[in-house]
Amino acid sequence: MRILVVDDDAQLADLLAEFLRGEGHAVDVAADGREALRRLQPGAYDLAFIDHQMPGLSGLDLLRAARERVPETALVLMTGLPSVDVAVQAIKSGARDFVPKPLEPAALDRVLESVRRQARAPDAAPETHEAPLESDGPAVRAAFLTNRGGLLLASRVVPGERMMDQDLFGATLDVIQNFMRVSFPALRGGFLKSIRQGNRTLVLEPGEEAFLTVLVRGEETDELRKAMRSALRDFEIRNRGRFEAGVVDADEFLGTDEVLARVMKTAPGGSQPKPKRT
User: Fold this and answer.
1) Percentage of the chain with pLDDT > 70?
2) Which of 191, 194, 200, 204 is closest to 263 using CA atoms?
């Protein structure tokens, strides 16, 4: 891939560039946001790693400008101050993902694989306009259950619902998994409860050991929030011993699909998955 590294710390930029070249990629380095913006021309790069805090044009400013100029380029924010607020700002500014500093090879490899996977994927189907809902409640379109270590335990997406990597929601799910590995207490602090994009809302509910994320059409309701809390609480009680034992195999957890079924039947439009375990 053709990659641009943007960082005012020359030593860190060179180290990252060396790592990426060792992986077989063609890499250029920009010392600040303005130089990066000159380099970011249509068709020039597949991926850009952008530092968060830079003099002059900041990382967030560069994300917003690059999103308009080169929408085909995957933009990834690098930050030494990972927080929920920074993550949400990055996503809304156009970042596909973020990686915390100091950079870890595993995190970089995950980003590279995600970009490669997206490049191999067929073009997305044309976007369709859905008729307004006649119900007062939201239609649950997708649900994801994740443990605090970032392991996806179960997921359900209604057929036809777009959850592409470049969408706000797909990127947000990646960020949530990152924060579970970096700072799960930050998510449990209640700073990030929901994110709205168009007529979709991503509703987030943290438990003691797991995290439930639900995509709805429309706005969240008290009924949905109560159902999420109840299902998550019952799941954690049922699997308390597995959490304490540090189980890392998703198939070892009981009632994962049951959690999603309870949430997805809360409002019209949701599908009820078949239970995997009884």
Assistant:
1) 72
2) 204
